[in-house]
């Protein structure tokens, strides 16, 4: 089963996270299928970058979001629809 969750990067006491698609039973920082975003909690407010279309793709394929990623997903504004 695939999960969309955080993978920790950065130095000690300076966390920076990648938002990754990964097998559920792999280690937190193990080999991921795809990196779909980043999260830096050290900025005020925390900076979040997400590839929304890729996250939606993986969710449509059955990937589950972790609780924290779900909260970050809700915080990020949806891209405005292009006016044709």
What is the class in the CATH system? Alpha Beta
Low-confidence stretches: none
> CATH topology, which one?
S16 Ribosomal Protein, Chain: A
- Within CATH, the superfamily carries the name Ribosomal protein S16
Structural class, by secondary structure, is: alpha+beta
* Number of DSSP E strands: 5
Any idea what the CATH architecture is? Answer: 2-Layer Sandwich
Query: How large, in whole angstroms, is the Cα Rg?
Result: 13 Å
Biggest sheet, in brief?
5 strands, mixed
Mean pLDDT: 89
Organism: Koribacter versatilis (strain Ellin345)
GO molecular function: structural constituent of ribosome
InterPro entries: Ribosomal_bS16, Ribosomal_bS16_CS, Ribosomal_bS16_dom_sf
Pfam families: Ribosomal_S16
Write the layout of secondary structure elements.
Blueprint: E1 2-9, E2 16-23, E3 34-40, E4 47-50, H1 52-60, E5 64-65, H2 67-75
Parallel strand pairs: 1-5
Antiparallel strand pairs: 1-2, 2-3, 3-4
Structure keywords:
84 residues; alpha+beta; S16 Ribosomal Protein, Chain: A; five-stranded mixed sheet; 2 helices; 5 strands; flat; ribosomal protein; Ribosomal_bS16_dom_sf; ribonucleoprotein; structural constituent of ribosome; Small ribosomal subunit protein bS16
């Amino acid at each position: 089963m695939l999960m969309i969750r955080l993978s920790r990067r950065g130095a000690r006491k300076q966390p920076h996270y990648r938002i990754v698609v990964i097998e559920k039973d792999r280690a937190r920082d193990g080999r991921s299928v795809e990196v779909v975003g980043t999260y830096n909690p050290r900025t005020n407010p925390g900076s979040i970058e997400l590839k929304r279309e890729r996250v939606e793709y993986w969710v449509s394929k059955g990937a589950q979001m972790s609780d924290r990623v779900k909260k970050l997903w809700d915080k990020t504004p949806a891209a405005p629809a292009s006016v044709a």
